[in-house]
Amino acid sequence: MSSFRTFEEQQSHFRTSPSFEFFKGVGQITAATLISITTLASSVLAGGLVGLAASFRNLPDVRQLRNFSPAETTYIYDINGKLIADIHGEANREVVALNQISPHLKRAVLATEDSYFYNHQGINPTGVGRALLVNWEAGEVQEGGSTITMQLVKNLFLSKERTITRKVAEAVLAIRLEQVLSKNQILDMYLNQVYWGHNNYGVETAAKYYFNKPAANLNLAESAMMASLLPAPESFSPFINIDLAKQKQQEVLQRMLELKWISQKDYNQALQQKIQLNKNRFSGGLGLPYITNTVAQELARKFGRDALIKGGMRVQTTVDANFQMMAKTTVKRWHRRLAARGLRNNQIALVAIDPRTHFIKALVGGVNEKTSEFNRATQALRQPGSSFKPFVYYTAFASGKYTPNTTVLDTRVSYRDGNRWYTPRNYDSSFMGAIPIRTALSLSRNIPAIKLGKAVGINKVIETCRTLGIMSPMEPVTSLPLGAIGVTPLEMANAYATFANYGWQSPPTLIMRVTDSNGNVLIDNTPRPRLVLDPWASASVIDVMRSVISNGTGKAADIGRPAAGKTGTTSSERDIWFVGTVPQLTTAIWVGRDDNRRLAYGATGGGMVAPIWRDFMRKALKGVPSQNFKRPAEFPRPR
């Protein structure tokens, strides 16, 4: 049972028995001393701000809160003008009365955001002092000093700039608002206005989105998880990271327990209760959340979230909705096939890029966006295995000392790597002796790649990767040529697309053009390619990778037209890849498990991912004429 039978009893307790348990154990500063100081500061500051209020005559009239005009909706379209999604603020809000919101949720929000809400008059210097003390004891920022009233007026009236003037204006408006509206009205407005993540504003919309129920029916466990979202809704979302969401839920419950707003029994039961998330939160529309979310995140980074949800932008993406749906269907179908072959709990990510423009044509971040919105195509850092080797061979070709026919030795070797000896081996533990580079790459021999990487310099290989847009941390270790780093499928697709365009590169993007509601251009991503790689060396890499498909480890990727690519398999079979290209389309496909466990013994990129690539590319290129790559001889060789 909760310590309060009703929310009204809790409000009464706030007004009569404020708790100062926050101040225990503070070295030489006693709780009594701190209470005296903060009480005095509260009186002085409150009185001063009331006096200042008269001089802030140009501040917004808080009575405007009752007369809002709806913000404009942002629309996202595919490359052909088909509507993919709309993103909005006011239109995506269902206002409910305070008595239609679960008392559990009201307590949880107050516990985390403003536990003295019913005691202060808009500002709470005592709360500021308490926040400083809590942060000092913890050695990190755990609590802020703004009241709910201050947060409300800041979100509705003020800019996001961090200045003393704005903070004073925020405090003055908070005092004014407390004179105009009751505490319950302010809490009502706050809960209906605040952002809860995934473009959900207001408790009712958020409760239905996360738990498929109205806000009135939220239990304590759900309420604590909802309240924990407020500091960083997307980061703490259970749809993005359920483990982090549960951790934040526990922090809210712990805070409520400390305040004695719930009992130990309530706390224990809430922690043990299984959270039932809404599996049907997507309805209607084209169902392209991996595209929509990626575009929305980029626009929010560039223009801010307010501009995204209220600015009425018109966004033309680079994807064809039908093409994206075809990629999504391919991923789902092969997920089932691989599971039937023993690859349980597999995830698949796919990225397709036009190498001539570096426009992203399809982006699938997982097998089911309804159960997981984590975008493995853009966010998952996974080891590329042997699909990393083309970066080593490009570096060698660009040095001017090697060609596809240069002989390399596939023989036993050991290197001193720090305090240990490193002895690389090939996948089949055999040695082939002296072989051409073409053979070494087509058969994915490990030892020649490492020898060549050491010969040209591991740091030079890292420079190549940086030029290609791979920004993951890299150490110049001997095993780097075998893909001992984390990369995303988007990074791999972008890098291979640069090879396919003979060294010419534009930034990869999902956004072609953005205008405001009046037609003014905000973003124009017309390709402006730059030559970042040596054309001869790039064409040579493509030429050698054609051998991977014609008579190497990627035979299962043969699509009956000129194509180049590379398989990738990590030594523990946790990550398997195929990245390949034709002149008009580059596609990277990764298969692995979210828990990073072994997929299955014997799982390889050539055996299990190359067929997915072949299936996708045949469909994607239907009706597209076959085209040959340029030969290395068409470009001057570097000296």
Number of helices: 21
Overall pLDDT confidence: 86
Low-pLDDT windows of residues: 14-49, 51-55
Roughly how much helix do the residues carry, as a percent range? 40-55%
Pairing-aware structural class of the strands and helices? alpha+beta
The largest pleated sheet is described as: 5 strands, mixed
- From the N-terminal CA to the C-terminal CA, the straight-line distance is 80 Å
The number of strands is: 16
- Strand residue percentage: 5-15%
- From the spread of the alpha carbons, the general shape counts as elongated
Strand order of the largest sheet: 2-1-3-11-12
Q: Supply Rg.
A: 29 Å
Q: Helix and strand layout, with pairings?
A:
Blueprint: H1 7-16, H2 31-53, E1 74-77, E2 83-87, H3 103-113, H4 125-138, H5 148-157, H6 164-180, H7 183-193, H8 203-211, H9 220-228, H10 242-258, H11 264-272, H12 289-303, H13 305-310, E3 314-317, H14 321-340, E4 347-354, E5 359-364, H15 389-398, E6 407-410, E7 415-417, E8 420-422, E9 433-436, H16 437-442, H17 446-456, H18 458-467, H19 489-500, E10 504-505, E11 511-515, E12 521-524, E13 530-531, H20 535-551, E14 564-569, E15 575-582, E16 585-592, H21 605-620
Parallel strand pairs: 1-3
Antiparallel strand pairs: 1-2, 3-11, 4-5, 4-16, 6-9, 7-8, 10-13, 11-12, 14-15, 15-16
Helix pairs in contact: 2-6, 3-9, 3-10, 5-6, 5-7, 9-10, 10-11, 14-21, 15-17, 15-18, 15-20
Structural description of this entry:
With 639 residues, the protein is an alpha+beta fold. It contains 21 helices and 16 strands. The chain has helices at residues 7-16, 31-53, 103-113, 125-138, 148-157, 164-180, 183-193, 203-211, 220-228, 242-258, 264-272, 289-303, 305-310, 321-340, 389-398, 437-442, 446-456, 458-467, 489-500, 535-551, 605-620; strands at 74-77, 83-87, 314-317, 347-354, 359-364, 407-410, 415-417, 420-422, 433-436, 504-505, 511-515, 521-524, 530-531, 564-569, 575-582, 585-592. The strands form 5 sheets. Strands 2-1-3-11-12 form a 5-stranded mixed sheet. Strand 15 and strand 16 form a beta hairpin. Helix 5 crosses helix 7 (183-193) and helix 14 packs antiparallel against helix 21. It is elongated, with a radius of gyration of 29 Å. Mean pLDDT is 86; it is low at 14-49 and 51-55.
